[in-house]
Design goal:
The complex is a heterodimer of chains A (303) and B (358).
Chain A lengths: L4 H4 L10 H37 L3 H4 L14 H7 L8 H33 L5 H10 L5 H15 L5 H26 L3 H9 L3 H30 L2 H6 L8 H8 L7 H21 L1 H13 L2
Helix pairs in contact in A: 2-13, 4-13, 5-8, 5-10, 8-10, 9-10, 10-13, 10-14, 12-13
Chain B lengths: L3 E10 L2 E11 L4 E5 L6 H9 L6 E6 L2 E2 L10 E4 L11 H11 L4 H14 L15 H13 L5 E5 L7 H18 L2 E6 L2 H7 L2 E6 L2 E6 L1 H6 L4 H6 L6 E8 L2 E4 L4 E3 L12 E5 L4 E2 L7 E11 L4 E7 L2 E7 L10 E6 L5 E4 L12
Parallel strand pairs in B: 3-8, 3-9, 6-7, 7-8
Antiparallel strand pairs in B: 1-2, 1-4, 4-5, 9-10, 11-12, 11-14, 12-13, 14-20, 15-19, 16-17, 16-19, 17-18
The chains are: A mainly alpha (303), B alpha+beta (358).
The structure holds adenosine-5'-triphosphate (ATP) and magnesium ion.
The site of magnesium ion has 4 residues of chain B, from helix 1.
Chain lengths: 303, 358
């Protein structure tokens, strides 16, 4: 189960260059590599850096032309504004962050709790037209959210789920479920069914056998899958902006987007809110990075 | 009590017919060996008995009661898996304890039982290790211990000794036979090793391509194989088969030799036959009047004996001889045949024709 990257990626035979040629080839290649990576890193990281800088700049430095990259006044005002309303008390943004935590967390738990047993069942049992069913499950992810958002809006209005956290939780869980089933089926396939067979002969029921012997082996896979689901729900924008409107229901992405518009835009606040929004994703990905790599390579390399 | 009876088991995996009407009757307390080559359906048979395989047809009776639809846990069986199936996150101790934990035994009972089993199988030193830290043979013994720690209705063992070295295997064979006797329990034991089957079994069922070829005691299977295939599979070196037909009071070989027709054959003249001769029923010494002439093809010294390959026409006879025998390839030889112990098979169907007359 715990396949390290080194095991998963075979390095292949070592070529036998004469030492001089190898060093030369190695150096010129690495220079090119470093240059390309540097360009890529600048392109990718500059917006992030800019966001972080803006979030801690005094307002007049934010609007300074030419832009100040280093010699600006540092302030924590913007971060305070993210959480505390101008008149004191809780800000609308901080409520939206709490909403995001709730919606992303619960929808991820829901998708995991439903998806893991489903994946187990698809892996272990002879299900009629299994391939077709699995393809159907995956196909629900083919369509971009924008395409289905209008019908879902109409359905939600009928059943009274518009502008509710429950509505968002359900739609995110529904979107994450196929992904969870597919990811987890790969992980379950890796665990020999004979552990469960042995457990059943020991005297456990099938469900106990799954719970006690297979599930613990799936934890890394579940962690990787749940992080992906969590990040999807946390970042989701389209459904959130269409299906919710009031401040006490809104999640962070539409709330931050809502700061832009109006006559003046408080870019410092936007940047600070964005930093706060991005932080959990960074932290989570960092915490489970080992599992993530194992999970992703397992899912990708096998078969 | 512990009788296991399966009737008409059928199971196919896609196009592969793994079991094709397997019927077995395992008496209480017997050491019942299922013998067959790789892919014969031995594992599938055991899994069917254990309730791990959904059957296409057939029934499983345990202690006379129909258990075909019962859950594995309800069948009260223990199994040693061919792949061991030891829980990877548990220590050897926890693996062995698992059947007792599942059935709610107290920790002191468990500790006592595990200790007893581990000393019996010489794995006391290994109890705190995980399966990944064990060698194949050690894992196999832990798997055996996990099965033997409880007294179920019957034990199912899927090639439990194949990964042990020869010395340990012979030791464990004796040990298992002893355990079987002292437990008085029913063992259904799967192997592809005929020596294991013949030395341990009360009864042997020979399985091939999902069909039972013959059921009988080891002696019956060896001395009176039901067909040409069983004769060829059981016995080492393998039985030699010579194409021939009966002609009056003689057997005439396709390669031109003649032998007196055994008294017990009832085969009509001219019907294509196969004469089966085991190495120990042949001799390169002049002993009787029934003999075949051939040339020395090769010598296989095996320590306690030498197997002499004798070429008769295009066919090879394997002859058991004293270890001191010598000769040069190409040398003419007379092979004496003990016709009373020979076998005749129908060349078309392979069915034994020896039984009727004997
Ligand atoms: N889960 C399965 N899916 C597909 N085919 C299977 C499966 N299990 C067994 N088979 C096939 O059924 C046949 C019998 O398999 P089985 O495992 O019972 O053989 P065996 O006698 O135990 O062989 P071995 O001595 O190699 O263990 C084989 O041809 C095998 O390929
Ligand atoms: Mg097998």
């Amino acid at each position: 189960m715990a396949v390290s990257v080194n095991e998963a990626v075979s390095t292949g035979p070592v070529r036998d260059h004469p030492p001089g040629a190898r060093r030369l080839g190695g150096r010129s290649r690495s220079i090119l590599e470093v240059a390309l990576l540097a360009v890529l890193a600048v392109v990718m990281l500059f917006p992030v850096l800019w966001m972080i800088e803006t979030s801690i700049k005094e307002n007049r430095d934010v609007y300074a032309i030419p832009a100040k990259f280093v010699d600006f006044q540092v302030t924590s005002e913007h971060f305070k504004d993210v959480f505390v309303a101008s008149g004191g008390g809780r800000s609308a943004l901080s409520v939206s962050f709490l909403n995001s935590v709730l919606v992303a967390g619960v929808s991820t738990v829901l998708a995991t709790v439903l998806g893991v047993p489903a994946a187990w069942a698809y892996s272990r049992f002879a299900v009629k037209a299994k391939k077709d069913q699995l393809f159907f499950i995956l196909s629900t992810r083919f369509m971009p959210p924008v395409v289905v958002v209008v019908p879902i809006f109409l359905m939600y209005r009928q059943v009274g789920l518009i502008d509710t956290k429950l509505g968002l939780i359900l739609i995110y869980a529904a979107f994450n479920l196929p992904f969870t089933i597919w990811m987890m089926k790969g992980f379950v396939d890796e665990v020999p069914a004979e552990y469960e067979d042995a457990a059943m002969l020991d005297g456990y029921t099938r469900l106990q056998a799954f719970w006690r012997f297979t599930l613990p082996l799936l934890v890394p896979g579940i962690a990787a899958t749940a992080v992906f689901a969590l990040i999807f729900s946390w970042n989701e924008f389209v459904f959130a902006i269409f299906l919710t409107s009031s401040d006490n229901v809104r999640t962070a992405p539409p709330a931050i987007a809502g700061l832009i518009g109006g006559t003046t835009v408080d870019w410092g606040l936007v940047a600070a809110a964005s930093v706060v929004c991005a932080l959990p994703v960074f932290v989570f990905a960092y915490l489970v990075r080992k599992h993530l790599v194992a999970g992703v390579t397992l899912g990708a390399v096998r078969r | 009590m512990g009788t296991v009876a399966v009737h008409g088991l059928c199971k196919s995996f896609g196009k592969v017919q793994a079991l094709d009407g397997v019927t077995l009757d395992v008496p209480d307390g017997s050491f019942f060996v299922v013998l067959g080559p790789s892919g014969a359906g031995k594992t599938t048979t055991l899994r069917a008995i254990a309730g791990l395989e959904k059957l296409d047809a057939g029934s499983v009776h345990l202690d006379g009661r129909d258990a075909t639809g019962d859950a594995p846990a309800a069948r009260d069986l223990a199994m040693v898996f061919q792949s061991y199936a030891l829980y990877p996150r548990h220590t050897a101790y926890e693996n062995i304890a698992s059947p007792l934990r599942a059935r709610g035994c107290s920790s002191s009972e468990i500790a006592a039982a595990v200790e007893q089993m581990s000393s019996l199988l010489h794995i006391e030193r290994l109890l705190q290790r995980r399966p990944a830290q064990l060698s194949g043979g050690e894992m196999q013994r832990v798997a055996l211990a996990r099965a033997l720690v409880r007294r179920p209705r019957a034990f199912l063992m899927d090639e439990p000794l194949t990964n042990l070295d020869l010395k340990l295997r012979v030791e464990m064979r004796t040990e298992l036979t002893r355990i079987h006797r002292s437990f008085g329990a029913t063992f259904v034991y799967v192997t592809n090793d005929q020596v294991e089957a013949l030395s341990m079994a009360d009864q042997v069922a020979v399985l091939r391509e999902g069909k039972v070829q013959q059921v009988g005691t080891p002696t019956e299977v060896y001395e009176r194989p039901a067909n040409q295939w069983v004769a060829g599979f059981v016995g080492s070196p393998p039985i030699s088969l010579l194409a021939c037909h009966a002609e009056g009071d003689r057997l005439v070989g396709t390669e031109g030799w003649t032998l007196p027709r055994p008294r017990w054959t009832t085969a009509e003249d001219g019907r294509p036959l196969l004469l089966g001769l085991r190495a120990e029923d042949l001799s390169v010494e002049q002993r009787g009047n029934a003999s075949l002439s051939g040339e020395l093809y090769g010598l296989e010294p095996l320590g306690d004996r030498t197997v002499v390959d004798v070429r008769v026409g295009t066919e090879i006879l394997k002859v058991k001889a004293r270890p001191t025998v010598t000769g040069t390839p190409g040398e003419r030889l007379l092979v004496t045949v003990d016709l009373d112990r020979a076998h005749l098979f129908d060349a078309g169907t392979g069915v034994s024709l020896s039984e009727a007359g004997r």
